[in-house]
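can u do me a favor
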């Protein structure tokens, strides 16, 4: 698993407030995103039974990773949530009027690449190409050092 932490670009605040209505009346200057990459055995641009099975396994692995981290910060009074990769919806909090799609502009604003496939787009990892799976978790007002210390996998 490869992890990256980014401060969320201000141009994405409005979209994130639609995804996470709990953020509506909050200042987002200290909103961070933890991006989790997992290397896959299969090219994720495919829609075969094998690829779907691998996506399911990786989704469960991400949920197992992200849930205890976000819950531990929530218990400390820090807003945190993550996106269920299978639905694009917040996992812990209130669901908003739109979903998070990893191939949207936020991904490119964070410096990640997408591959145009004609009918859709796919994530592209510099090393793993399209053999990758991404998950995201968000934290508001967190000390990044505390976040890094909380990650034990």
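np, heres the sequence
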């Amino acid at each position: 698993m490869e992890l990256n932490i980014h401060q969320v670009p201000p141009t994405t605040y409005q979209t994130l407030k639609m995804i996470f209505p709990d953020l509506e009346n909050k200042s987002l200057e200290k909103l961070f995103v933890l991006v989790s990459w997992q290397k896959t055995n299969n090219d994720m641009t495919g829609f075969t039974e094998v690829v779907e099975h691998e996506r399911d396994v990786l989704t469960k692995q991400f949920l197992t990773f992200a849930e205890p981290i976000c819950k531990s910060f929530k218990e400390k009074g820090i807003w945190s949530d993550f996106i269920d990769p299978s639905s694009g919806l917040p996992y812990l909090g209130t669901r908003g009027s739109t979903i998070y799609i990893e191939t949207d502009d936020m991904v490119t604003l964070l410096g990640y690449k997408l591959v145009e496939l004609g009918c859709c787009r796919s994530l592209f990892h510099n090393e793993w190409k399209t053999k990758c799976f991404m998950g995201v978790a968000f934290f508001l007002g967190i000390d990044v050092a505390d976040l890094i210390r909380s990650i034990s996998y």
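The mean pLDDT is 88. hope that helps!!
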